[in-house]
Structures are given as C-alpha cells and as structure tokens.
C-alpha cells in the first residue's frame, strides 16, 4: 500500500531518497512572480517531467517544464474569485492526457 499525504502525493513504501536534492520549481522566495511560488499545495508530474503546481495563495496553477527557470500560469492567476477565469485557493491538480484535461480541486 502506498503512503498517502493529505494532498494526494503517492510515495511508495520502499522509496529511497537521495541525500541532496535540487530545486526544480520556485526557489526564489515566496511571491507571485513567474519564478516564485506562494503556498504550493498540490503537485503533479507528468510523463514529460513537467511539474504542475497548485498555488493556494496565488490562486493559480503553474506549469514548470523540465529545466525551466520560471513557470507559466495555465489556470487562474486573475485574483481570487469564482469567475470562469479565476480560482479560489486551489489545492490540488492532475492532468488527464487521454481527455486533454486539467482537473483542479478548488474551494
């Protein structure tokens, strides 16, 4: 049985961790710039090693391509709200490639 976190990250029970890691998204203090994250909650990594981050405080979903120094907003980012172009504290994201869909868990 894989271990489950509150934000649906799957960690295999026999996972081994490297002693040192590298920053692959953010790393430039908390903020709302394209090279920053603010209260990242949900994280999804696709087959291309693109990272999708649900940012609670910035009300957006940011896509980080492998090797990128900044992310690209792919949903939200237009202030907190319930409009079609807004998100309200998103806390998880997954990609359904078969249906070409972005699935966001939002309050």
Mean pLDDT across every amino acid position: 83
Distance between the termini: 29 Å
Low-pLDDT parts are: 1-5
Structural class, judged by helices and strands? mainly beta
Radius of gyration: 14 Å
Task: Give the SSE map.
Elements: E1 3-4, E2 10-11, E3 40-45, E4 51-55, E5 60-64, E6 72-76, E7 92-96, E8 101-105
Antiparallel strand pairs: 1-2, 3-4, 4-5, 5-6, 7-8
Q: Quick summary of this structure?
A:
This protein has strands spanning 3-4, 10-11, 40-45, 51-55, 60-64, 72-76, 92-96, 101-105.
Features:
four-stranded antiparallel beta sheet; 107 residues; globular; two-stranded antiparallel sheet; disordered N terminus; Thrombin, subunit H; mainly beta
Structural write-up:
Helices cover 0% and strands 33% of the residues. The protein is mostly beta strands and 107 residues long. It has a domain at 34-107: Thrombin, subunit H. The strands form three sheets. Strands 3-4-5-6 form a four-stranded antiparallel sheet, with no helix packed on it.
């Amino acid at each position: 049985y894989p271990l489950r976190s509150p934000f649906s990250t799957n960690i295999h029970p026999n996972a081994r961790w490297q002693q040192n890691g590298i920053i692959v998204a953010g790393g430039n203090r908390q903020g709302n710039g394209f090279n920053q994250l603010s209260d990242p909650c949900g994280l999804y990594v696709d087959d291309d090693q693109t990272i999708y981050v649900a940012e609670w405080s910035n009300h957006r979903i940011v896509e980080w391509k492998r090797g990128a120094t900044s992310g690209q907003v792919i949903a939200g980012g237009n202030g907190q709200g319930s409009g079609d172009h807004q998100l309200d504290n998103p806390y998880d994201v997954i990609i359904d490639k078969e249906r070409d869909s972005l699935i966001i868990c939002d309050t």
